[in-house]
Amino acid sequence: MTRDRFGLLDVGSNTIRLVIFEMDDYQGITELQNIKTPARLVQYLDTKNIMSEEGINVLITVLKSFTKIAESYKIKDLIAIATAAIRQSTNRDVIIARVKKEVDLELTILTEQKEAYFGNYAVRYTMDIPDGVSIDIGGGSTEVTYFKNKEIKEAHSFPFGTVSLQKQFFDEKKHNDKKAIKKARKWVNEQLKTLDWLENLSVPLIGIGGSARNYAEIYQRETDYPIAGIHEYQMFKDDLDETFDLLVKSSMEELGDLDGLSEDRRDIIIPAGIVFTELINVMEAKSFAISNRGLREGIILERLNQEYDDAYDLFGIKRQTVQRLFKQYDIRPISAHQRIILADRLIELIKDKGILDIKDEHLYLLHYGATLYYLSSYIEDDSKSQHTFYIISNTNLHGFNHSDRVRLALLASYKNRSLYKQYTSNFKGWYDKKELDVLLYLGSIIKFAEALSDSHVNFVHDMDLIETDDDNYELCVTYSGEAIAEEYRANRHKNHIERVLGKSLSITFQKELDESVQTEV
Asked: I need a labelling partner for 260 at 20 to 30 A (CA). Which of 1, 125, 363, 516 fits?
């Protein structure tokens, strides 16, 4: 089956980027290509905001190259958008006409409102944060958008960005000039405080774009962060300040050796940090979260939501992410469904005995973990636990912050306590002992549920947990068909449930009279 491909050319003030998206059979999108060049178009604007002939030629040259690349991907269509540098140009009509004539490309200039809208659209539809302020700082403009309960309340575009701030305050000065930093801080703070609705919001600040990603990546490298990925990564105010201070103390040569910092952002990373740190102070925000999805993804996601009913659900992000992983890794539906039913029944029985207190958030994780259990079996059966943990914990999963991503990985990969301890050893300080115990018990329950559905033909119909005379437990399993494999595996892995119960367990299998069996297709 041929899958639709879309190209998106993003003409920014700092970079020009081409992204090729491919849509799969269930409306998920994958980046097939993502290339950029640091054109720095905003630096070609003079005092009257007229873009020079040199700047226009740079634009034309890049667009010619990128459109040829896009054509080789046999895309359905190519969307070309321009933001602040072209938008602010007083000769923008001439630029658009030149692009049309010399590249045969329709270049659409996004308004400030649309630019803010699309970036925030991607945040709201790919992050499980109900209230927040998104900031997308480009080379020549900065968009801030406040949303509450996933609904946009306020939005504003400031006519300054990393390149224009560098030009305004650091031109012909060192990248970390103290007086320039102090002056820029004061000026940026004054601009931010013109928006009454920004002050004292105390909601997460969410960074979109390359500068925000670089701050997160630098901090991750400096702290030996144990997993990959940026989307929904969360820093705190002190972490952001610490990273900014590191950049200020570093020479330009030292910045070149700093892991996580893009070479083409060395001279503009401090202006970006000034905006981030001043905004987090004005807002009194405690955290700085990172979105790896922004303007370009927002445009594509809105398009998919217009073409397909509920392609991306604003309030069901985690559920849809799990569904897409389920389909992507070709997990057998009946097997997953049976694991969930049996795990639910085991939880119900254990809770009835007052043994385990499970919160709703953990119950959701139990369902998701049971759904994705051993999703990497196709790679190598003997190491499916290790591969599953690695894939889930190191994948940017929409709707899952990094703590939840690791929780899900622990449940979906659970094999035994030794491996569980090995996995969690890299995440010291992430979870307290009570949380680790609960996750261990939930993993044990999923593991045992899988043992009870070993044949993957739904032999087991029900269970009951009975306290025995010797103060232990008996699990009575009702089944139909031939549950020889299930009986063997359940007794072999009963130690997982005994760990949860804190007592010994005996298991009896009782056959139903009804011999009907639902087999898997």
From this structure: 125
Q: Is 177 left (phi over 0), alpha (psi -120 to 50) or beta?
A: beta
Closest among 163, 160, 203 to 42, alpha carbons compared: 163
Average pLDDT, the chain: 94
Q: Are 331 and 377 in contact (CB under 8 A)?
A: no
Structure tokens at 94: 């001439």
User: What are the tens digits of pLDDT across the range 191-218?
Assistant: 999 999 999 999 999 999 999 999 999 9
Beta strands in 159-221 (DSSP E): 205-208
More confident residue, 348 or 382: 348
State which amino acid sits at residue 273: G
The contacts of residue 202 (CB under 8 Å, 6+ apart) are 283, 284, 285, 286
Tokens of 214: 């670089």
CA 461 to chain centre: 38
Beta bridge partners of 51: 45
Q: Who's near 479: CB < 8 A, 6+ residues apart? A: 459, 460, 461, 486, 509, 510, 511, 512
Q: Count CB atoms within 10 A of the CB of residue 192.
A: 20
Q: CA dist 311 to 33, 252, 300, 514, Å?
A: 22, 45, 11, 41
Q: At what angle do helices 402-412 and 417-424 cross, to 10 degrees?
A: 160
H or E element at residue 222: helix 210-222
Burial class of 381 by CB neighbour count within 10 A (0 to 12, 13 to 18, 19+): exposed
Length of the chain: 521
State the pLDDT at residue 2: 60
User: How far, in Å, CA of 18 to CA of 29, rounded?
Assistant: 15
Measured CA to CA, the distance from residue 146 to residue 153 in angstroms comes to 6
Helix axes 210-222, 237-249, angle to 10 degrees: 90
Q: What residue type is 46 in one-letter code?
A: D
Buried b / exposed e along 340-364 (16+ C-beta atoms within 10 A): bbbbbbbbebbeeeeebebeeebee
For position 514, what pLDDT does the model report?
Answer: 54
Share of the chain above pLDDT 90, in %: 87
- What residue ranges define each of the domains in the chain, with the CATH number in brackets? 5-110 (3.30.420.40), 113-296 (3.30.420.150), 317-511 (1.10.3210.10)
Element (H, E) at 86: helix 84-87
Total-model pTM: 0.92
Helix (H) or strand (E) holding 238: helix 237-249
Q: What are phi and psi of 423, to 5 degrees?
A: -65, -45
Backbone region of residue 481 per phi and psi (left: phi > 0; alpha: psi in -120 to 50; beta: other values): left
pLDDT tens-digit map of 445-504:
999 999 999 988 888 999 999 999 999 999 999 999 889 999 999 999 999 999 999 999
Cβ(143)–Cβ(155) below 8 Å: yes
Which pLDDT score, from 0 to 100, does residue 520 have? 44
Q: How many CB atoms are closer than 10 A to CB 199?
A: 11
Rg (CA), the chain: 27
